Automatic annotation (TrEMBL):
Pfam families: HAMP (PF00672), HATPase_c (PF02518), His_kinase (PF06580). This is Sensor histidine kinase. The chain crosses the membrane at residues 15-35, 296-319. It is found in: Cell membrane. It comes from Paenibacillus rhizolycopersici.
Length: 591
């Protein structure tokens, strides 16, 4: 006996297991996607905040660098100071007074410049014996002279650079960023050099109070040189780094550059913004900065997981009430049907899909009861039919034996016609009663047709004759449906020759094409018109008085088409008062 309680527990346990797994899966997916989503927005927010800070600082630094560049350009070309410098450097009659005039003009340019506090040295020189220096003189520890001026890095007769490196001042302990420009005279000829050394504080002062997260660094690129900003100093990098393309799509400005920076086996994000041409300010971001706060994220996930589990429990209870219990009732109802209880139970017809199943079970019970009643009635009718068949049954052997006895008596009395007619009738009846084949060789069908014609010949006397023509003996092995030729001969006798009084029938068997047989049965009787031919092939002849009832020409035509295909069958040609030719087309097939 099957333990139904165990089955019920299994269904419930499966629902609970599935819902538990579902809850864990949803909680895990929510945790994963929420973590990724929070990380994405935190990364995006951090990068955009860094971009904004760098952009703000870069614009301030750019103003000071532009001011310092303007100060150097005032001595380089196309200015009053440049005109005085040309007179002092080029004129052979230049006097110390001309030098004082140049110095005064340079001091005025220096004084009005808003960024003069970052100038460590501003020097003009003809790179030979003349130079003038304007700067914050208190910062220099060693006086500058014609003998040591060549110690300044980057100062030569053809030097030119702008904010491309940090150099050490040879005359003090400080370092600076040089800008070196040529001084042009008449016809754009170079007559000297402007050398301005800016204090690195021009960059570091703007970064005081800059909020730099833990694990991040500030970098500045001058030309091709890269430096790290540490407090008030700009230090060369201790080890080189490699920039790789940043494959993630973050919303940044057109000038902002994002890249992966690999240094000493560590990978960080680099956010860079150009200060001006050749000067780039960068900040590195550690991946740890993008991770959500663990405690807050854990609390959020625990809350979400508990909510999902609670919802899963509610869904489990709902499914138990709406699915498990109705399924159990349906199962019990099916068990009752299996035990023979086919009564209709309306309690299982709920207003749901399972209610449709319940209605189907009730319909099944009703149909089974109807079928059982019908089966009992059919059984009674069958018994009654069998009884009637026993009453009307005649032994075929008795009929055959009786016909044989008539044959021998006719032979003994020298009545050959009666003997031949009895023999033909016996063979005909035996073929009808015992041969159940659908297809027979043409030879046997012609023999059955001969037996039938012999009986009709004795009936009509010498008024009818039949002639057979065979093109090839091999055609006799071809298959043909049983009782195909007899109805055609019967039709020729009854409807063609009998109304005329006498006539002849010609049966021709010949090949048609390569693989077909054409059998023609032609009589010289009264003939038919087109309407009669169409009527014969379109409906059964009513009230047949021949050997078989309801087996006429239309039946022969339909059987041929059903057996061999649409292209085969019966066709009729006839002319009133002349002849009727019935043509059978069938394929040549063997057993």
């Amino acid at each position: 006996m099957i333990d139904t309680s165990a089955r019920k527990a299994t269904i419930k346990s499966r629902i609970i297991l599935i819902m538990t797994l579902f809850a864990l899966l949803i909680a895990g997916m929510l945790s994963f996607f929420s973590y990724e989503l929070i990380s994405y927005f935190q990364r995006k927010t951090t990068i955009q905040a860094t971009e904004f800070n760098l952009q703000l600082v870069s614009h301030i630094i750019d103003q000071d660098l532009n001011n310092l560049s303007a100060l150097a350009l005032a001595s380089s070309t196309n200015s009053p100071t440049n005109n005085l410098i040309q007179d002092y450097f080029v004129s052979p009659n230049a006097s110390p007074k001309d030098g004082l005039n140049v110095f005064a003009s340079m001091q005025e340019d220096f004084r009005v410049n808003r960024s003069n506090s970052y100038v460590r040295r501003l020097i003009i020189t003809d790179t030979q014996a003349k130079f003038i220096q304007v700067d914050n003189s208190g910062s220099a520890s060693v006086p500058l002279s014609i003998h040591n001026i060549n110690q300044l890095p980057g100062l030569s007769s053809d030097a030119k650079e702008a904010w491309e490196r940090v150099v050490q001042d040879p005359f003090s302990r400080s370092s600076g960023i040089p800008i070196v420009l040529p001084i042009y005279g008449d016809r754009a000829a170079r007559i000297g050099t402007v050398y301005l050394l800016a204090n690195t504080s021009v960059i570091t002062d703007k970064l005081k109070g800059y909020g730099l997260p833990e694990g991040s660094e500030l970098l500045v690129t001058l030309g091709s040189q890269k430096y790290r900003i540490e407090g008030d100093t700009v230090q060369p990098l201790s080890s080189p780094y490699t920039l790789l393309p940043y494959e993630k799509n973050e919303a940044t400005g057109a000038l902002t550059q994002l890249a992966w920076m690999e240094q000493d086996g560590k990978r960080r994000i680099s956010v860079s913004y150009p200060v001006k041409e050749g000067v780039l300010l960068s900040q590195t971001l550690d991946e740890k900065q993008f991770a959500p706060q663990l405690n807050a994220w854990l609390l959020l996930m625990i809350g979400v997981s508990l909510l999902v589990i609670a919802l899963s429990g509610f869904i489990t209870l709902y499914l138990t009430r709406t699915i498990s219990l109705p399924v159990e009732k349906l199962r019990k109802r099916i068990d009752k049907i299996a035990q023979g209880n086919f009564l209709i139970d309306r309690n299982i017809e709920w207003n749901s899909e399972l209610g449709d199943v319940g209605r189907g079970i009730n319909r099944l019970s009703h149909d089974i009861l109807t079928l059982m009643d019908s089966r009992v009635a059919d059984e009674k009718q069958k018994q009654e039919l069998e009884y009637r068949m026993l009453q009307s049954q005649i032994s075929p052997h008795f009929l055959y034996n009786t016909l044989n006895s008539i044959k021998w008596m006719a032979t003994l009395q020298n009545a050959t016609g009666i003997a031949e007619m009895t023999t033909s009738l016996s063979r005909l009846l035996r073929s009808i009663a015992k041969d159940h084949r659908k297809l027979v060789p043409l030879r046997e069908e012609l023999s059955l047709m001969d037996d039938y014609f012999l009986i009709q010949k004795y009936r009509y006397g010498n008024t009818i004759t039949m002639e057979q023509k065979l093109e090839d003996e091999e055609l006799l092995s071809g298959l043909i449906p049983r009782f195909t030729l007899q109805p055609l001969v019967e039709n020729a006798i009854f409807h063609g020759i009998e109304p005329k009084g006498r006539g002849e029938i010609a049966v021709t068997v010949a090949k048609s094409g390569v693989n077909d047989i054409r059998i023609t049965i032609e009589d010289n009787g009264v003939g038919m018109n087109e309407a009669q031919i169409t009527s014969i092939l379109s409906q059964q002849e009513p009230g047949s008085k021949g050997l078989f009832e309801n087996v006429g020409l239309r039946s022969v035509h339909d059987r041929l088409r059903l057996t061999f295909g649409e292209r085969y069958g019966l066709s009729i040609e006839s002319e009133l008062g002349q002849y009727t030719s019935m043509n059978l087309l069938l394929p040549y097939r063997k057993l």
